[in-house]
Amino acid sequence: MASVKVKNVVFDMGGVLLKWEPLLYARRFADNDEDAALLARVVFGSQEWAWADAGAVSCETVAWTAKKRLPERFHATVDDLVFRWFEKREIIEGMDELIHDLKHAGYGIYVLSNAVDSFELYKHTLPGYECFDGIVVSWAEHVVKPDAAIYQRLLDRYGLEPSSCLFVDDV
């Protein structure tokens, strides 16, 4: 049996490159913990957010529907949370250095993740962004992990053999 060597490292974003903690982000925009819990549930826990991950609706739709479910005093905060949550995100320590080290060692570096359309606003700030050989995100593909189709799109688009890839995910 032939040995296969890993040549490509594929990273998820949330929980791998970035901390994905909706309540933490909501706390950074809300006045108190009770409001933060409500906002996190209504925005990030909504069916609309899941649909936005799948590219079926936009962040504008997420904000609009969240505002319909919340008192008016939350409306400006909803906009901030939906359209600016990533400004308050935390990078997972050591990831920038790891990605640069892997790239320097000759590995292909890819991102495969669920993400909403605001990804386009912050993708260039991801750790190791300049090292990425390719990115596949759910909203643009209209399919979310763990559907096998999104993994196949990464492989097909970049001509990768599955056995040459190591996928790093938090789930």
Strand content: 5-15%
Radius of gyration: 17 Å
| Continuous helix count | 9
Spans with pLDDT under 50 lasting ≥5 residues?
none
Question: In what order do the strands lie side by side in the largest sheet?
Answer: 3-2-1-4
Helix-strand sequence: EHHHHHHEHEHHE
* Shape, per Cα inertia axes: elongated
First CA to last CA: what distance?
30 Å
Number of beta strands: 4
Integer average pLDDT: 95
What proportion of the residues is helical, as a percent range? 40-55%
Structure write-up:
This protein is an alpha/beta fold. It has helices spanning 22-29, 33-43, 47-53, 59-69, 75-84, 95-104, 119-122, 138-141, 148-158; strands at 8-11, 108-113, 134-137, 165-168. Strands 3-2-1-4 form a 4-stranded parallel sheet. Helix 7 (119-122) links the parallel strand 2 and strand 3 (134-137). The radius of gyration is 17 Å and the shape is elongated.
Structure summary:
The protein is α/β, with parallel strands linked by helices. It has helices spanning 22-29, 33-43, 47-53, 59-69, 75-84, 95-104, 119-122, 138-141, 148-158, and strands at residues 8-11, 108-113, 134-137, 165-168.
